[in-house]
Amino acid sequence: MSQLNGAYYGPSIPPPKSYRRPSRSGGGCGCLSCCCGCIFDCIISLICKILVTVLVIAAVLVFLFWLIVRPNVLKFHVTDASLTRFTYSNNTLHYNLALNVSIRNPNKRVGVYYDQIEAVALYEDARFASQTLGPFFQHTKNTTFISPLFNGQRVTPLTAEQGSQFEKDNDSGIFPIDVKLFMNVRFKFLFFKSHTIRPNIRCGLHVPLKSRNGTSSPDAAFEATECDWIYKRWWIR
């Protein structure tokens, strides 16, 4: 009966359960989702794949072009040089220099348009003459000869060191003369033509001075000289 004396309120009521609305995304993060930056990641991945594909295709095309064309470098030689006058007085250089230059195109499928060739002659890095040649077209597997001629006089101040070197060269009868060829050329393959490029060529010559009757000593005969490409200045003058 003692249990009936206290207040009785019935069994305890459990706390209500919390309800959480399920996410529509299903917990994932796909390419079409607007969350988690997945769209940005997919775009970056797509761009990378496109770039890699383009690079691979370009490399394959370049390799196929090289395999078909097999391009070779043009070769330049000064086969003959005749120097009949080279005197210096009153800061004026008097000269008469004739050259014979061979240009060899060893390519089987590539022709060359020489739109312009400027031949420049220098002594001790001092420019004293120039001549413009061209234009002409050179066929495949062909050797073409050009003949620059430098004749006249020009005021060419030489330093004391250069003047001293001139006296030494005059005594030896052999003059170191640089001839540079500045060219505008285009290459032709089938029906395609390249854009204009500007390769520069340097020919370091040792030219014997001939006597008045046009002869020189056997020990001072001119030797054919191969010219060098100035690669770093192909595209700029």
UniProtKB/TrEMBL annotation:
Its main location: membrane. Signal peptide: none annotated. InterPro entries: LEA_2, NDR1-like. One of its GO terms (cellular component) is plasmodesma. Residues 101-203 form the Late embryogenesis abundant protein LEA-2 subgroup domain. The chain crosses the membrane at residues 43-69. It is a single-pass membrane protein. It is found in: Membrane. It comes from the Eukaryota. Keywords: Membrane, Transmembrane, Transmembrane helix. GO terms for biological process: defense response to other organism. This is Syntaxin 7. It comes from Vigna unguiculata (Cowpea).
